[in-house]
Amino acid sequence: MTQGSEFTSALKKGLGRAMILLRKNPANQVFQVELMRACKTNLVYDPQCEARRAPYLCSLIRETGESRFYWDNLLRYFREAKGERSETNQIQMFDILCSLASDDLNLDRNTFRSLLHSVDFDTVANSCMRALVRLEGVAGLKFCFHSFASKVSPEEWVFQSIVSELAERDGKEVAHASLREARECDPELDRLMRIAESTEQTNEKIEPILDRATVKELFAQGQHIPYTWGRDASAEDLEWAADELLAAVDDKQIISYLRQFFWKRDFPKPAASLIHLAHSQNERVASAAVRALSRIGDPDVRRLALELMSNRKRAAEGVRLLQSNWQPGDFGTIERLLEAVGEVEFEYHRLGSAILDVLDHASVPPSESNSTLLQLYENDPCSECRRQVVSKLLASGNVPDWMAEECRYDAEPGIAALFNPA
After folding, report:
1. What is the domain partition of the chain in residue ranges?
2. Fewest 10 Å CB contacts: which of 35, 92, 187, 356?
3. How much is the pTM?
């Protein structure tokens, strides 16, 4: 693998290896092209659970010593972008521009106001406003509240998220004090804040107390119940739910009982009574049944695990069943499954998640799992999964020196924090 391709691969995953390579050759033109592309296009595998990449990318930009070059080009790209439908990612670019402005007081911060007015409100503005608040604090919040007041209703949650960002930036006490002072001097801001606070109180829900008949009726209607009902269900309620599940014929109801009761609680009947659902033609039923069965240690469940592991399409589900059915030598099979998946990101991530679940529940010795964890570190596309991998290696004292150095610059803050003492 060339240095250029190694840098590109590390950049995509958010590995700190990109910083190590850049420090050795900060003027590398291939690195510059790839870093600019990463700034324009969000390479995060799962934005819902992974951290934003702007801080990571900005640290790499600073290392090049060419921050102004990236500022000028990203500003131009941002203005040319057409929202989320474009190949560029306005949210990430705005975040990076704000971070660069925090480093250089000579950069024109008024630029951000015109940029914000140019973006699509529904898809881009909220994230960009939060970035502006991270940069300017309460001054940025005031600008956002005033500028977008006409567009917010009935989306008052937008204002609430901006206030939360200020609290995270300055701390709750400082943020509260600065907001109170700003509201005293700005009646319109005070009015808008009252709307946001009123909506937040209205949205607070008190979970109803449900009886079994109501739960059954809600499931029959295809509705959900509060997750706490299943979490706090008594042994008698779980027995009742298991009986209802086994008697159900509608797939949606079966899924509801499995997910609401038996993903986090043990199924109280023999595993054999549930195994047929793991073979359902409905993939969602089968997957939910596997989740429930993964909590049960049983020879029949282990046989099902080995059967599913031999089917590439369901290999991850088979691995997950080893949570309560692991035996020495299983990780040799698991490593072969990872090798067979190769560079298919979705399949690799599914397998990786299942492996981490096994390690969370089974007492697998590090001598068996370390090699697999090293593979996941290199190849799993998700930085949140990588955090779990590194944490497990660290707990067993098996983080190599080269990995410890890379992790200091990882895109996932939880990883970097493990190796950068406060």
Report:
1. 3-202, 208-291
2. 187
3. 0.87
